[in-house]
């Protein structure tokens, strides 16, 4: 069944931006409900109320939509961590602040895994460049914050902390949020209980150990 467009083709710049924003908002909502992996371009089009061809006037692929959302998520996480750690000091505060703000952002954690594994491979180099620049800007800001909170890690090692925590969180999120069928399997069999991680304490513990290694000079 064909869907009936809910808006006419945008011709003015402000209308095009409204369409652009509406598509991204729909993709965000769907991904939060279903997970990034399960959302197709057709799903996004149906949520907005347009044909897939209309979506392609604004984005080259579904992957570009999610990369743009990922760039927004990096900036949102950076802002949240700065607010969380205002006036804080010490490795535990840094580790808990990073892990707590990640746990509060399920879509971002999901995108952390999908960006390098899938999304970046199905867009133009220009789209990847814009995403990477946004992510690096956020990481640079968080790196400076990490050094302020834990000066002992060294001025040039903050980037390592944020990058390592982000990479670990990407995997830990997938392991701690299995599909419904696997979650039921793990819950039914005590032998499989360890297969499903507890996300926030696991990431926090990893961050503390990683920071301790930098502070003590263990490479």
Characteristics:
disordered N terminus, Arc Repressor Mutant, subunit A, transcription cis-regulatory region binding, DNA-binding transcription factor activity, 219 residues, Tetracycline Repressor, domain 2, TetR family transcriptional regulator, mainly alpha, single chain
Tell me what you see in this structure:
The protein is mainly α and 219 residues long. It is 70% helix and 0% strand. α4 (62-84) packs across α6, α6 packs across α8 (158-176) and α8 runs antiparallel to α10 (199-216). The termini are far apart. The model is unreliable at 1-8 (pLDDT under 50).
pLDDT < 50 stretches: 1-8
Classified in CATH, the superfamily of the largest domain is Tetracycline Repressor, domain 2
| Principal-axis shape | globular
Work out the helix count. 10
Q: Report the mean per-residue pLDDT as an integer.
A: 92
Give a quick rundown of the structure:
With 219 residues, the protein is mostly helical.
